Amino acid sequence: MAFAGFLGCALIAGGPGLAIFWTFIRRKAFLVLLVLACSFAWLVGLLLTSLLFRGYVPLESHTGALAAALLVGVAVQEAMRLGCWLLHRKLVVALGQVAEKMEGAVRITREDEQLLALAQGWAHGATHSLFFYFSWLPLFLGKGTLYLDECPQMSYFLAGALLTLAFNLLHTFSMVIAFDGLREGRRKQWAAVPVAHLGAALLTLVNLRPSGCLGSIPLLLLLGLTSAVAAGYTCWQNAAAGPADARHAPLPTSEPDGH
């Protein structure tokens, strides 16, 4: 039963992310390499953020101190998101320079740019999941499980899996939304991403209240699904608008069929 519970929680937390990777990312070798590079960058960023609080551990248990820590963490990650945007634009320019030297260069589609954004968002979500959940999930393989007094309705591992799923969806699709907003100059669309991120982070504080998980987890899952729907709608709008104007080399694929 321990292994069944471990596998179930692992699939809840990471199953949708694996489906996204298998469907959209793994067919293009360049996107896989981009995921690896971005995952390493996000891991370094999370480690540096944890070092900021090394001298303050353990944090005081009152809400103000924890909210301040979450605010700093979100600010660092949103600054890194802007760094990812700069990397994204440099990639687009580099692909354009390659295209100028290639015969039969093709126009890059907005779908290609969205795949680049999705790969970077997937790297953010996957690194967040590994750092905050999968690193301690093997404890589930012990002889018992763990329940918290504030959330006796579900085990600590199940609650963590649902929270991880919510943040995985939020981080993955927020990158698509943010990059589209920055690309098109839609400031409100871009600003909605850090606001949603901060709101989701602060919402986890509700888990400290008795039975707070029954309210926070559904809301966080709804926020993650909303980001997925918003990203899908953004991609649909861009597909209807037609291809981008710039010329670039097509993204290299890892399969002979060219998908």
From TrEMBL:
InterPro entries listed in its UniProt record: Aph-1 (IPR009294)
PANTHER family associated with the record: GAMMA-SECRETASE SUBUNIT APH-1
Compartments where located: Membrane
Organism classification: Eukaryota, Viridiplantae, Chlorophyta, core chlorophytes, Trebouxiophyceae
Protein name: Aph-1
Membrane topology category: Multi-pass membrane protein
Record-linked Pfam families: Aph-1
Transmembrane segments: 29-53, 115-136, 156-178
Keywords, in A-Z order: Membrane, Notch signaling pathway, Transmembrane, Transmembrane helix
Protein family (similarity comment): Belongs to the APH-1 family.
Keyword Membrane: yes
